[in-house]
Specification:
The chain is an alpha+beta fold and 199 residues long. It contains 6 helices and 8 strands, in the order βαββαααβββαββα. It has 2 domains: 84 residues, Aspartate Aminotransferase, domain 2 (3-Layer(aba) Sandwich), CATH 3.40.640; 106 residues, Aspartate Aminotransferase, domain 1.
Length: 199
Amino acid sequence: MICDDIYEKIIYDGLKFYSMASVNEAIKKIAVVVNGVSKAYAMTGWRIGYAAGPEDIIAAVTKLQSQNTSNPTSISQKAAVEALNGEQDSVMKMVGEFEKRRNVVVEGLNAIPGVKCMMPQGAFYVFPDFSSFYGRTLGSKVITNSTDLTAYLLEQANVAVVPGVEFGQDNHIRLSYAISLEQIVEGVARISRAVTNQY
């Protein structure tokens, strides 16, 4: 079992994170936990990740990895160690800011007639349902799926989103709120204008 715990520190509403590997000893014996510093410590692109698991699996992964990639720089490694071992106040502050942004984007999306957006409990993405717009003509384009909607929003509103079909849910699109509050407000306003043909 592979446990992707990369968003373990980015959770909201007083929730507590539990890794699947901690459920019981039987699962722990077959689990490989993967994690890194790109999300919680905003070290995207530093290419620092790690895995923990049964010794024989980690040994095999290490052999495979050594033949496929080069090592990260020593500066990145030292910075990652400091991030993991240092004070975590900045992480908590960042999560607090993400929580504010989450609330604004969800409220803004749900204010658009026909859009349904659940409140995420972690990470920094929303996954709203835009399927009520499928079959409609927006601008000069008939929207039939999330790929059409994604292209339309990019062309018409200059807003980049990811089609939900990439995640197995074609009724949805994915938006990141790892941007400024001002950009979120502007982006949601542009989406609203685009899907209500107000451009």
